[in-house]
Structure formats: structure tokens, C-alpha cells
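Z., the sequence and structure:
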Amino acid sequence: MKKTFYKMHGIGNDYIYFDCFDWMPEDPSALAVRLSDRHFSVGGDGVVLILPDGETDAQMRMFNADGSEGKMCGNAIRCVCKYLHDVKGISKDEFTIQTKSGIKRIQVTQKGASGEALSLRVDMGAPVFSPDNIPALFAAEPILSHPLIVGEKRYLVTCLSMGNPHCVVFCDDPNALDLGVLGRQFETHPAFPERVNTEFVHVTQDGLRMRVWERGSGETLACGTGACAAAVASVLNGYFEKDREIRVSLKGGELSVVYTGETVFMTGPAAFAFKGETEV
């Protein structure tokens, strides 16, 4: 059976999107593994299914390149709303999307000349600091600039959940790191029973510059929840004040994040790459 897919990305964090309002793949995990291969298939950081939901505009389920299911993806949810707005023709500027980490609210903030959604703002909800709910095996709460030995080296880590677990490490130069080794060491560290996304962050005068290692996908060009986690961590560690717009620069582009102390708002672009058809 052949099905249409849309390749979309948020500043380079690319997924393969399927409209599942009238069908559902038998094995989404296996589909994600097969289609995410960048050499022998479509290529991407994973697969996203857009499904009907009785309570919201749609439900989003996302599967990483290794087949594991994630709870939330900030870049993907903007693309889901762009698809609903531009392709399915749902002509409104505010959406609600059901995710594995709860209902998220998204607003279209910029449109193109033809009325297409270019930029969207996501209410990511409140960060979670409880070690049991991240989860992370630390006694401290919050886990703020806490020492952790990784690969025989001591790091100071700040851990939180933005719908999925994050470990933020502030450093001088993220580009100097061997992320292929270090990222995997953090991801599979015993302190994180469900593995972890890790952000390696340098603080600049007007924002953050970071690289991210996502559990199940490896290094990606961008991570929306990771950018939010890094911004929250920068406020908790005293680098920036609450309610300030923090520009987060990633390998694929830039996101804007505001942490109010109660919730996190993330704004960024969503774009189509191409449309295709594949055997499912």
C-alpha cells in the first residue's frame, strides 16, 4: 500500500509526516526506522503521525529514527500545525494538539504572501524539575548545576523535563566537543533510566549557542524542547532573567524562547521540504 508523506522541518529538525485521519500504519516504529535512513530511504530524524482527536484539532505521535516513541517535539508540533493550516485548510490561527505529554497550544505568528503559516508560537507548558518525573536518579531537587561523572570527566548538569528528559551542560565551545562519543555517553548514563536528551550550551551576551544530542536520533540540527530546556536552565543558573526573550542558536537556525517562571513559550519557523509517496 502506498501513502503520501510530507517531509517538513523546523530549522533543520526534519521528520516525515503522515496524515492518519483515515488510516494507521501497523508498525509505526518499524516504519520510522526504515524511512529515516538518509542513505537508502527518505531520510529524517523520525516519523510523525497526525491523527484525529476528539478533544483537540489533532493528535501528534512522533517516532525517533531508532523506532522509539517520543512524548513531545517542539519543532515537529509547529510543522503539524502548518500542515493543518496550509494543507488541510483549517483556517484559524490558534490550534490545540494532543501529545504524549499533554495538550499543547500553538499560535500562528507570521504568514506568507499566500496566507501560509511561516512562524508559530508554542505554549510548551511548565518545566518539570522533580527527579522522579524527569526521570533522573539524583537526590537534589531541582537538579541545578549538579556534578555528574561521564566518561571519567566531571560535568555540572541541570536536568529537567519539557515533556521528555533533558540534561543541560554549560560549556565554553560546543563545537569543540566530540558529540558522537559524548552525546551517547550522556544518553545511556545510568543516572537516566529512560535515556536523556543532552544540550551542550554556550552563553553569549544576547542568548545561547548550543548543540543537541537527542535520544534515539543522535545529534540533530535542532531540538525545540532542548532549546526550551536550555533557556530554562540559563534562567535557573542566573544567566538571564525570567520573561526575557532568549535567542537560542542551533546548527539549523534560531528559536526564540521565553520562560515566565510558570510556562515556556517557543517561537520558530516551520517549512515544507517536499511531498512524496512511499510503500507502507
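The helical segments are 28-36, 74-86, 179-187, 224-236. The chain has two domains: 2-123+268-279, 131-262.

Let me know what you think.
H.
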